[in-house]
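Dear colleagues,

As part of the handover before I leave the project, I'm documenting each prediction I ran so the next person doesn't have to rerun anything. This entry is a single chain, and its sequence is reproduced below.
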Amino acid sequence: FPVTIAEYCIVRQVCRFQKSYKHKVWNQLKHLQNTKFLHHVVLEVNPHGIMRFASCYDVVNHAWVRLRAWLHKHYGKKWFFVKILEPHKSLRPHLHVLIGGIPFLDYYKLKAEWKIGFVYRESMRKGFNVLFYVLKYVCKMIKADDNKKFDSLFAAVLFALNKRLWSVSRSLIVKKSVKVRVGFRYLGSRSLALVDGFVRE
């Protein structure tokens, strides 16, 4: 993929819950394997006072936006992050944030800014590979079998609430030039079985 047949161009659609998504993440983040992260911060949410289950995910996102704005204000553009959303056994979320570019992170000020729960911080060990760390959580979302019912349930929650499992700061995104295919127009999506039959014909 993509496969061009006469006047048709068939492009594979990659969903974040498919096995092929793991390869997409690998290509997106493989340049981070040698990036040095200094701090591992866990941001917990106090569920008391949050009545609706879905509201926990919205509260976490809003609190992270505020905290990120505070970090930009105090540390400028020199810092960068990788953020991962993870559930507790109750499926209520908390965040794992890997931060680099800041030699000293003021834990007490960070704790004061995160107003919705608890904050834990630890220094990163040498040789830490952020790509493998992200892929560990990505694989959990993909392996939806009987032995991973909890991970499958969390994947369903992310899909239903339209929430992202992970994100990175813009400074870590490598933009690749994309060749624009001229002369094609979008006709719609089809199942793999129908595409296989079409290609064979």
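Strands lie at 3-5, 8-10, 39-43, 80-87, 93-100, 119-123, 166-168. The first strand starts at residue 3 and ends at 5.

All the best with the project,
I.
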